[in-house]
Please model this.
Amino acid sequence: MRPRHFGLTVHERGKATPGFTLYSPLWRPVTYLLDMDGKIVHQWKLAGNPGGYARLLPNGNLLAATSTEGGPPFKGGAGGGQFQELDWDGTVVWEYRDDWQHHDFRRLRNGNTLYAAWEMMPAERAAKVRGGIPGTEGDAGIVNDCLYEVNPAGEKVWEWHAHSMDVENHPLHSLCPRRVFAWCNTCSELDNGDILISLRQINTCAIIDKKTGKFSWLRRDDEWGHQHDVQILPNGNMMMFANGMNNTAAHSHSYITEFNYQTGETMWEYKDNPRTYFYSPHISGAERLASGNTLICEGSFGRIFEVTPEKQIVWEFINPDFDRMFMGDDVNWVFRAFRYGEDSPEIAGRLKL
Model:
């Protein structure tokens, strides 16, 4: 049953963090900016349906990935393929195409672009993949994750391949199809230039040493339930959207967890009460705002909401746009959402609250 109310449903003035919220309905070729009243105050028309999401760059341009034909031999998985950087007025100022790109991408400090992609896994490495549902390999074999960094001219200047891992030591979760190994849904650059990744099918987050291509840190926790949007906060802790799918919980639910990634100590968590009221088994993310509040995207319900450190919901918006997706359902899914302040570099006074 669809929610009864859409658009803005909660706004606690004085508690919510003022700004503009960016989101892209997954099966609609547009990205919206909302004000605090849930009204669309700016939008960009995209070349196609979002391949995951779009984000604003510090210069105010929009960097978006949209879906293309071609790519891996299966549908789904936040498939992208076409990068475009659009200025505030929607003019394309940069573009790059890789039909096998999927899920995440970031503009790096050096001006290059980092993104996740797929490739067919070499047969000798695929033979080492353990776990998953027996007999669920694709006809062409197992698809493998890779990361690429491209410069503004579109030249690849760095790459990493998941088949370089000790594949046999990282079994797929027992309920995951064997068509894909690892399934990278997050990649981002850390302050020292190393790369933080999230690998969904093996419930693993890791840091890649950019110089060696080896892991300098890794943690697996099947209780995360195929996590998304792992990040390191300004306070040095790690935060993620723990989807809570295929774990041992008596009742499926998602949660946001912030923890000291060196010691494993949990520093803060958000769960609903009852916890089953907050659950997105896939996509989704969270952002720690400058106020200390947390903006959460419960992707499967198109729900974007802000909570205080005390876990009070102070702002909530539910995407009213339902579109037909590849499995035939009408959905209002949102992969991620972001909040930008009026005086942030991304907005820079172009809009007023």
User: Anything to note?
Assistant: The first strand starts at residue 7 and ends at 11. Residues 302 and 333 are 5 Å apart (CA to CA). The mean pLDDT is 96. The chain is about 0% helix and 45% strand.
